[in-house]
Input
Amino acid sequence: MKAPVAQQSLLIELQLIDSAILHATNRLKALPEREQISAIHARLKKTAEELAVIETELADVAIDLRRSENDVEQVADRMAKDEARLASGNASPKELEQLQHEVQTLTKRKADLEDAELEIMMRHDGVKARFDELKSDEVGLQKLEFELNVRLENGITEIENELNAKKDERLALLPKIDLALVELYEKIRSSSGGLGAALMVGINCGGCNLAINAIELERIKGLDPEEVLRCEECRRILVRP
Ligand SMILES: [Zn+2]
Output
């Protein structure tokens, strides 16, 4: 195949644009925020599960606490009634003795119930602290997720703008190159990792970086500059500088 030297140069220009498009597309797929957001989602899920357990626990402790407060209150009421009766001075000696005995028993019972209540309160505080901690974790993670999403969106927009600009450049360049040459380039590019045409760099192929052997170099020297060369190693279109 033959193509004017200028056309061959344009092909290298096209390759640069296509490489930039490929690079940008890969960057778009590999934006680090995607993985970071997945990690945040996993942590948020775990936190939500822990929160569900703690919420149940907190509700149970709150019920225990109310029950315990109620118990203490009932004993206190009973004691207040007994003491009022004692203070009234209307009780018989036998009744007085009974009342005094009952107040003693109730005092002991109230102290025990208050100890139990204190224990439940401490348990409640512990569970509440863990709940608050998890809630705070959740808020922090949600904030981080939001920030990462903003960063991801910005990253996507930036790369997409770059891609659109490169695609416009490509569209403008394409009509300037002979269709048969473009078709050959596309065919090679699709099977050669996105690289269809390469410049000769010294005696090396810029595509596979292998040196062109002396016999081939000699042959190339004798060829018409319009002759479209192919690298003997990688079969890419080789453009002389
Ligand atoms: Zn090569």
In short: The two ends are 18 Å apart (CA to CA). The chain has two domains: 5-25+178-239, 31-164. The beta strands are 197-201, 204-205, 229-230, 237-239.
